[in-house]
Amino acid sequence: MDFLNAIVALSNYVIVPGIAYGSQLALGALGVTLIYGILRFSNFAHGDTMAFGAMVTILVTWWMQSVGISLGPLPTALLALPFGILATMALLLATDRLVYRFYREQKAKPVILVIVSMGVMFIMNGLVRFIIGPNDQKFLDGERFIISAREFKALTGLKEGLAIKTTQGLTVVTAVVVVILLFWFLNRTRTGKSMRAYSDNEDLALLSGINPERVVMYTWLIVAALATIAGTLYGLDKTFKPFTYFQLLLPIFASAIVGGLGNPLGAIAGGFVIAFSEVTITYAWKKVARYLLPENLEPDSLVQLLSTDYKFAVSFVILLIVLLFKPTGLFKGKSV
Amino acid sequence: MSEPFLIGDAMTGGYGKGPDILHDCTIAVDKGEIAVIVGPNGAGKSTAMKAVFGMLNMRSGAVRLDGEDISTLSPQDRVVKGMGFVPQNQNIFTSLTVEENLEMGAFIRRDDFSDTMTQVYDLFPILKDKRLQPAGELSGGQRQQVAVGRALMTQPKVLMLDEPTAGVSPIVMDELFDRIIEVARSGIPILMVEQNARQALEIADKGYVLVQGRNAFSGTGQELLNDPDVRKSFLGG
């Protein structure tokens, strides 16, 4: 019984949140890795792109809530999501037209594009704060739990409860669907294959008649969809605050690099590696330990390796360790 | 005398704003022929090939394909015009499967290219066995076959190969040459740059020896092989 309680406690505090957080990071890292693979720079504006997409989704959600449109038990934000994606696509295409294309024509070095993307990041950041404000915003509605801790306890008779939030379930399901669609697109369609070809060998892609401007356009469109979905899911699951999206950039980059930059499969793996290391290292293990260890060995302290304030440090320690042993990431990515 | 099918006529030029590498260099290939460019290291063999394909700033001279002046066209447009080019390095998509490499070769075609793919597989049977494998996992000789196969997917009117046998073993080299002859027999003229001058001239209908960006000798493959000067300076006696 103690063993079961330990597993339930572990699931409740580590595994379920870890999977949800990992899915969000994976979706974010997929966007970063696609940009890196195809446009060949690290896009620092990605976190704020996610914030922008989530913001538009929130505004449309509020409007839908005000006129009484709802999805029943599911969050209304799901209905608003396509509008967020469209707006983000427009924003990214406009940014590309106004900013990135200029540097592409100059054949600017990747490091210049990185700095340019930082400028874009600050502008997007300001835009989002200007429109929706810097504060926390709530837009979650519908059923809160798939199963709440109390229901779980009544159902199983265990002392520990397992709560699964609707948003957590939704995050995982959406992430799986999105990843399947993305891989189908990249591996099965002519356009998707031409994007992989362009990422693999730019010169040969040109010789084969692949139009780089089209490849770039499709990349931005896909990245806009990924960023908006990731941003909205994160906002639903936690809360929406522009600054947290800026901070999210760090674990997202860590995920993409750990997995191997430019490799979509690596981005997903990296997302989960980073999410689980963050969650396990900042989790107070006292509860689980109490169930598993004999009474006289019970810990007095919380058995928390690091305070949650340091969670971003965890991503970077993992990043350093992986890069020391596998410089191109867990999956073979591009070496810079 | 009618003009050859593809001719780089009196080409002079270099890369970007750099010094001229080619000086009044002429290279041509006619239908049903294999033309080979040989010469010492740094003679401008690959450069001459790139000039014909439009990857070089030409200061004077012209490139004509089937009588049409294509000197001002970009490489991509020359592909559309019917030129197939296999670069020396990085000539395949390593992370794509063999079949995807061929599909990308046919990217500009909107018609059904399955027949062409069957022809490529007939020409290079090993590729059919490995068609679902990433091209980067193949051996050097097999990669070259993928590279040539990719270029053949556009059904080019002329095929240009830049050192197709670079870095492969002598046995594989012989096999590649056999395949190249086969392609030529199917009616596609071939212009190629080769390091292995003797073997290349043996299969060549026409040979060009370049020295310092200039035509030093030209003639049929046999003529060059028998020419004492060419033998002494380039073929090791």
Explain briefly what this protein structure is.
The complex is a heterodimer of chains A (336) and B (237). With 336 residues, chain A is mainly alpha-helical. Helix content of chain A is 72%, strand content 1%.
Question: How do the helices and strands line up, and which of them pair or pack?
Answer:
The complex is a heterodimer of chains A (336) and B (237).
Chain A: H1 2-38, H2 46-66, H3 77-105, H4 110-132, E1 145-147, H5 149-156, E2 164-165, H6 166-188, H7 190-200, H8 202-207, H9 212-237, H10 242-259, H11 264-282, H12 286-292, H13 311-325
Antiparallel strand pairs in A: 1-2
Chain B: E1 6-14, E2 22-29, E3 34-38, H1 45-53, E4 57-65, E5 68-69, H2 75-81, E6 83-86, H3 98-105, H4 114-123, H5 125-129, H6 140-152, E7 158-162, H7 170-185, E8 190-193, H8 197-203, E9 206-211, E10 214-219, H9 221-226, H10 228-234
Parallel strand pairs in B: 3-8, 3-9, 6-7, 7-8
Antiparallel strand pairs in B: 1-2, 1-4, 4-5, 9-10
Descriptive keywords:
heterodimer, A: 336 residues, mainly alpha, ABC transporter involved in vitamin B12 uptake, BtuC, 72% helix, 1% strand, B: 237 residues, alpha/beta, 6-stranded mixed beta sheet, 4-stranded antiparallel beta sheet, 37% helix
Structural summary, described in words:
The complex is a heterodimer of chains A (336) and B (237). With 336 residues, chain A is mainly α. Chain A has a single domain, classed as ABC transporter involved in vitamin B12 uptake, BtuC. Helices cover 72% and strands 1% of the residues of chain A. Chain A has a two-stranded antiparallel ribbon. The N and C termini of chain A lie far apart (52 Å). Chain B is α/β, with parallel strands linked by helices. Chain B has 10 helices and 10 strands. In chain B, a hairpin with a 2-residue loop joins strand 4 and strand 5. In chain B, helix 3 packs parallel to helix 6. Chain B is globular, with a radius of gyration of 17 Å. At the A-B interface, helix 7 and helix 8 of A face helix 2 and helix 3 of B.
